[in-house]
Amino acid sequence: MASQLVSDDSLARRLGAMAFGERRALLDRLLIAHNCNEPDQTITSLATATGTNRFTASRHLAVLREAGLVTVDIVGTRRLHRIDLEGVASIDDWLYPFVDAYQAAFSRDSGPAASQIV
């Protein structure tokens, strides 16, 4: 039971961190960078790509790090950020049963009987 509470707390932090549009924009940019094989992004590049300043980007990245959605490596004086796909996957693990239920209901409603209603 205690491990479930920790898991629920972690999920709540992740969902809460994604509540702000600026943070979702940062995650979007980090996902694009990951998919382009350029996963390590500086605060400056992220701020520029998302149309914000470095201070704001840094503040939002800290929240995303604390929520387990972003990791950071310090190389010299630079902080290199990347998306934490395991953290994102944990949201998907929780959300998937809802999506599955929706898809099942949708396919049930759009079957042959539903298409005959005019």
Beta-strand level of the residues, as a percent range?
5-15%
CATH superfamily annotation: Winged helix-like DNA-binding domain superfamily/Winged helix DNA-binding domain
The largest sheet, given as strand count, sense and whether it forms a barrel, is:
2 strands, antiparallel
Low-confidence stretches: 1-6, 113-118
Describe the structure.
By secondary structure, the chain is mainly alpha-helical. It has one domain: Orthogonal Bundle (Arc Repressor Mutant, subunit A). Helix content is 69%, strand content 10%. A two-stranded antiparallel ribbon has the order 1-2. Strand 1 and strand 2 form a beta hairpin. The chain starts with a helix and ends with a helix. The N terminus and C terminus are likely disordered.
Provide the fold topology.
Layout: H1 2-17, H2 21-35, H3 43-50, H4 54-66, E1 70-75, E2 78-83, H5 85-109, H6 112-115
Antiparallel strand pairs: 1-2
Helix pairs in contact: 2-3, 3-4
Task: Please describe the structure with a list of short key phrases separated by commas or semicolons.
disordered C terminus; 118 residues; mainly alpha
TL;DR?
This protein has helices spanning 2-17, 21-35, 43-50, 54-66, 85-109, 112-115; strands at 70-75, 78-83.
